[in-house]
Amino acid sequence: GQNIDQPTEMTATEGAIVQINCTYQTSGFNGLFWYQQHAGEAPTFLSYNVLDGLEEKGRFSSFLSRSKGYSYLLLKELQMKDSASYLCAVLDSNYQLIWGAGTKLIIKP
Amino acid sequence: ETGVTQTPRHLVMGMTNKKSLKCEQHLGHNAMYWYKQSAKKPLELMFVYSLEERVENNSVPSRFSPECPNSSHLFLHLHTLQPEDSALYLCASSQELGSGANVLTFGAGSRLTVL
Lengths: 109, 115
Fold this sequence. Notes:
The complex is a heterodimer.
Chain A lengths: L2 E3 L3 E5 L4 E8 L6 E6 L6 E6 L3 E5 L2 E6 L4 E6 L8 E8 L5 E3 L3 E6 L1
Parallel strand pairs in A: 2-11
Antiparallel strand pairs in A: 1-3, 3-8, 4-5, 4-9, 6-7, 7-8, 9-10, 9-11
Chain B lengths: L3 E4 L2 E4 L4 E8 L5 E7 L6 E7 L2 E5 L6 E7 L2 E7 L7 E8 L10 E2 L3 E5 L1
Parallel strand pairs in B: 2-11
Antiparallel strand pairs in B: 1-3, 3-8, 4-5, 4-9, 5-6, 7-8, 9-10, 9-11
């Protein structure tokens, strides 16, 4: 079967760096997405990786290793507003999105 | 108004009621989706429409009935639901289906409680 694994919850300190991991086993691969979802709000797109390597976008970076079935989202200079759930999703060979259950990130002052 | 708008934001219904969820997008997207989001579970894809035609129905019980009258509007009609159907129902749209960087734009969801 197809599976996406990510930690259920993580806690980090304001101003610090946190890395949220995502491992996947899917039928084929056409890209990996990260979305951010604040409580009670819509998920919003953060990043898309289809080639190996690191993509940087301001304080957020996303890394992909296709050979390892692994990605991470790196958040630097954490702010209180970064408290949210982070959803990892993989596009399989049929262009179906396979979702992880999300990682709830709690930022403490 | 821009983006994806869902109404109502909150809905409480009994098991014998009939209600509908509405989704509207003003992005000119050709594909629209209904997802179910339950606590600590992955998003479950329920229905997909492309150019107003249903292209996917993921074994969803018949008590959920989608309708897509045009490319900007999507409805989810609810009938004789069960308490386990209580969840957040998310609508999303995207430019098209079947491409790589197919970014979804989500609405804020309709929180459904079935008593």
